[in-house]
Amino acid sequence: MLALPEKGFRRSITAHNVDPVICCDWLEACALFEGTEVTGSDVVDLLREQEIYAEQDFAWELVGDSLSRLKERKRLLGEGYPFDFQPSRILPRSGWRDYPAYSFCLALSLASAYPNWSRTGADYGKQGRLFEALTAESVKLSLPGWDVHATGCLATRRKSSKRW
User: Fold this and answer.
1) Is residue 67 included in any domain, yes or no?
2) What separation in angstroms does the CA of 157 have from each of 8, 15, 125, 130, 154?
3) What is the spatial distance between Cα 109 and Cα 13, in angstroms, rounded to a whole number?
């Protein structure tokens, strides 16, 4: 499994001090980027080893809530969702390369939880152009018949003679 995020996971004794969104994204990243199932018991063991949770039953509450949230994501996204579920297990449907847009957005969403990931230098133009291209394509597919015009990185780049 991936290391626990540096942010969003704090010691939980009587209240859950884990950001549920970061937890769900982390669970998905563990399954998708490592290409292997993630079991609830492995997550509980890791949370106890890292001293986020002292009580196993309390850690299982977090795991159960996270699995419920992930199943709701699956319901909302349908076939575009890259995971299946078995009791207390998250199973990747295939590798991350088969879901490039989802993988990109997942990695992007976790950047704030892993501050060292974002040490890419001062120029964020390449990531911005990728995100804008992904967003434009998504809007085109979601709203057929609409004209989509880039206004940020893509628009600026198109005005120059350089190719991105």
Assistant:
1) yes
2) 35, 48, 10, 12, 5
3) 27
Count CB atoms within 10 A of the CB of residue 44.
Answer: 20
Residue that is written with structure tokens 């795991």 in the block: 63
Strands (E) located in 11-117: 38-39, 83-86, 89-92
Give domain status of residue 50, yes or no. Answer: yes
- Domain that includes residue 56, residue range: 20-118
Specify the pTM: 0.78
Locate 113 and state its tokens.
């939880």
Q: What is the mean pLDDT of residues 68-83?
A: 95
What distance in Å separates the CA atoms of residue 56 and residue 64, rounded to the nearest whole number?
12
Is residue 41 within 8 A of residue 61, CB to CB? The reply is no
For the stretch 46-67, pLDDT in tens is 999 999 999 999 999 999 999 9
**Residues 108 and 86 occupy one common structural domain:** yes
Q: Residue 154 half-sphere exposure, CB side, CA atoms within 13 Å?
A: 13
Q: Write out pLDDT tens, residues 98-133.
A: 998 899 889 889 988 998 876 655 566 766 777 777
